[in-house]
């Protein structure tokens, strides 16, 4: 099993871990996802993207432009491989085509990292996990 397949499998189950409310210091009240978000993209897709890919190291996050960049990460079960991802939030509405995930993979050969192909299903699985998490976030706030 390569690193990109492992991360898709591992991260697909992660979306249910975090709650839909942010909490500040001990005296602050909880603030909903939509109320706390001032970016130009859908707040549920934004939060769901951060939740779903939380095992990858975050490099940059631009809520106005809707781009989240993650840095390279290697996994013990896939030595000599590493992956990174970029998430694009494409809409201010919660829509199936409102998020795109690009996954990049490299393999190490004689100490040099070289680009390697990624199964297209990996990006689709991550997009579906983000959409599922976003729907959970939204329905939690509505109930």
TrEMBL record:
Swiss-Prot/TrEMBL keywords: Signal
Q: Which Pfam families match?
A: DUF3576
Name the source's superkingdom: Bacteria
Q: Which residue positions does the secretion signal occupy?
A: 1-28
Please report the name of this protein according to its UniProt entry: DUF3576 domain-containing protein
Originating species: Henriciella marina
Lineage of the source organism? Bacteria, Pseudomonadati, Pseudomonadota, Alphaproteobacteria, Hyphomonadales
């Amino acid at each position: 099993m390569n690193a990109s397949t492992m991360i898709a499998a591992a991260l697909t189950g992660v979306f249910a871990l975090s709650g839909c409310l942010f909490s500040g210091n001990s005296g602050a009240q909880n603030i909903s996802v939509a109320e706390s978000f001032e970016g130009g993209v859908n707040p549920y897709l934004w939060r769901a993207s951060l939740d779903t890919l939380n095992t990858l190291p975050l490099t940059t996050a631009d809520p106005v432009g809707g781009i989240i960049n993650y840095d390279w990460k290697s996994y013990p079960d896939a030595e000599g491989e590493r992956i990174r991802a970029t998430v694009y939030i494409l809409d201010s509405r919660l829509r199936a085509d409102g998020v795109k995930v690009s996954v990049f993979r490299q393999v190490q050969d004689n100490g040099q990292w070289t680009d390697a192909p990624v199964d297209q299903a990996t990006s689709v699985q991550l997009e579906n996990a983000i959409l599922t998490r976003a729907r959970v976030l939204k329905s939690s706030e509505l109930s």
